[in-house]
Design brief:
Blueprint (H helix, E strand, L loop, with lengths): L1 H32 L9 E2 L1 E5 L1 E15 L2 E5 L4 E6 L8 E2 L4 E5 L2 H35 L11 H26 L2 E3 L4 E6 L6 E2 L4 E7 L2 E8 L1 H4 L10 E5 L7 E13 L6 E8 L16 E18 L7 E5 L5 E5 L1 E6 L2 E6 L6 E3 L13 E2 L4 E4 L5
Parallel strand pairs: 1-22, 2-23
Antiparallel strand pairs: 2-21, 3-12, 3-16, 4-11, 5-7, 5-10, 6-9, 7-8, 9-11, 12-15, 13-14, 13-16, 14-15, 16-20, 17-18, 17-21, 19-20
């Protein structure tokens, strides 16, 4: 009896289970149909381009060199008596310091002899002038010759006085030249003498570099030349070295050498630095031979865009239109400065620049924005 009852109800159970399964499958399909479609647009970051005036910075490199150098020579002959303790290679001496002295007895004696000769010449002149006065009184209106009035003798005596005065000047000069002094604040590069050494007139005994001023000659490339200011004279320049203990000093553009190199097509400018060895200041010394970077302000460019170089590919930059679609724009690169391009044409103010490009950018590609746009303005380089 039980078996018959189970057999009778089994089809009904199967039917109920099948009907429930169909309901579940149908409900699942409806849920899937109600899901939102997947957004496959690439995400980009954008910034707003703002044109502003920008002052170009001209940068080049050169070597620090002395404004002038002097070969020190003995102007008189004699024995070296003393020399300055700083008159050694690498020593610093100040303007007017005595570098070395030469034995002066001979030149003192020559000066005394010249002074004695002047006294004799002056006495002879006085004597001749007195004789001329006597002759003039004796002639008293009588027509006489110049020889009778002793005019030739007076002229000769006057010449003798002038000659004696000239010898005194020469003797005094020779005596003064026994003491050799520094013509300017100087770095001693070389010294070739010692106490007791006999030096001849004109013998070179040392070399000095002027450290009151230094100069740096540096090239200006053709693409930089058109951005030079109209008047470069006295333009403030920043001079700096590279490395751990970097040195930064200030100088002024002194002049243009006025020549364009035929091989490189570059012109040359010169910047001057006062007191490079910092004798009169606490600034770090800038030694001769340093290879330095020189930079100064050039022309001011009106209404340009300063963009990172990675945004520009073959003079093409991508912008976002009003429909949030990518559009390429061809731009005119006015100048390259470091990691940036200065753009003069091709963009419009307030253009939305795409800062992060998709892997395969295409014209009209729809994108979504990662965050609100920022203004990308021209920033002055320091």
């Amino acid at each position: 009896m039980k078996k018959k009852w189970f057999r009778g109800i089994l089809p009904l159970v199967i039917l109920v289970i099948g009907f429930s399964g169909m309901k579940v499958i149908k409900a699942s399909g409806e849920v899937d149909e109600e899901k939102d479609p997947v957004d496959t647009r690439p995400t980009v970051k954008i910034e707003t381009a703002i044109a502003e005036d920008y002052q170009v910075r001209i940068t080049s490199y050169g070597e620090v060199k002395p404004l002038e150098s002097t070969l020190v020579a003995a102007q008189v002959s004699g024995e070296v008596l003393t020399w300055h303790p700083n008159f050694v290679p690498g020593g610093l001496v100040l303007r007017g310091d005595t570098l070395f002295t030469i034995e002066a007895d001979t030149y003192e004696a020559a000066l005394l002899q010249a002074e004695a000769d002047l006294s004799l010449a002056q006495a002879n002149l006085i004597e001749e002038q007195a004789r001329a006065e006597v002759a003039e009184r004796e002639a008293k209106g009588t027509k006489v010759s110049d020889l009778y009035l002793r005019k030739p003798q007076i002229l000769s005596a006057q010449a003798a006085v002038k000659s004696a005065q000239a010898r005194i000047k020469i003797a005094q000069r020779d005596l003064d030249n026994c003491t050799i002094k520094a013509p300017y604040d100087a770095l001693v590069v070389k010294r070739d003498l010692g106490v007791g050494q006999y030096v001849n007139q004109g013998a070179q005994v040392g070399e000095l570099y002027n450290i009151e001023s230094a100069e740096i000659s540096f090239p200006i490339a053709g693409f930089d030349r058109e951005f030079l200011p109209s008047d470069i004279t006295q333009k403030i320049a920043t001079i700096s070295t590279k490395g751990y203990n970097a040195i930064v000093r200030e100088g002024k553009v002194s002049r243009d050498l006025g020549i364009i190199d035929q091989s490189t097509r570059m012109s040359q400018l010169v910047v001057r630095i006062d007191d490079p060895y910092s004798l009169k200041s606490s600034l770090p010394p800038l030694k001769f031979g340093h290879y330095v970077e020189v930079s100064f302000s050039g022309k001011t460019l009106n209404q340009v865009y300063r963009l990172p170089q990675e945004l520009v590919n073959n003079r093409i930059i991508w912008v976002l239109d009003e429909n949030q679609a990518m559009q390429p724009k061809r731009v005119e690169i006015l100048r390259e400065e470091g990691a940036y391009f200065l753009i003069s044409d091709g963009l419009q103010n307030r253009d939305k620049l795409i800062m992060t490009l998709p892997e395969y950018p295409q014209k009209g590609m729809k994108v979504k924005i990662a965050e609100p746009a920022k203004d990308l303005v021209v920033q002055q380089s320091l």
